[in-house]
Design goal:
Elements lengths: L1 H33 L2 H5 L2 H9 L8 H4 L7 H13 L3 E6 L2 E6 L1 H18 L3 H10 L1
Antiparallel strand pairs: 1-2
Helix pairs in contact: 1-6, 3-5
Length: 134
Amino acid sequence: MQTINGWLSAAHDMSSDCRAAAEQARRALDVVLESGLFKALADPTRVAVLGALLDGDEATVSEVARCCPVDLSVVSRHLGVLRDAGVVGSEKQGREVHYQLRASSLIDALRELADSLERCCPRDGDRQSEKKEG
């Protein structure tokens, strides 16, 4: 009888752990969604703008605009969306604004989301091996 009670207790604890991990993953997803990160990365032109900043150097709107066949005002607006999402930083220097990739912010947000999902959700391969074993 103690074996069954011990198993039930362990199953209950595991279920509680899973619920807690799922809740943590939901919170991490909410944080990423509220930050506008996915919206910022959902546009092909913004991804190209981001690519133009990958070398790590600061660049003006004019310099970034070389990447894309769109007007400077469009590139400027895309840089604003990326800045608001925390992916790009900006600093006014005289009459120009210089933009730079904030790679650590992007990496941290994506890593937190991935880590939270891994804690609550088995990978597809893990789920298939669980089905075979069960």
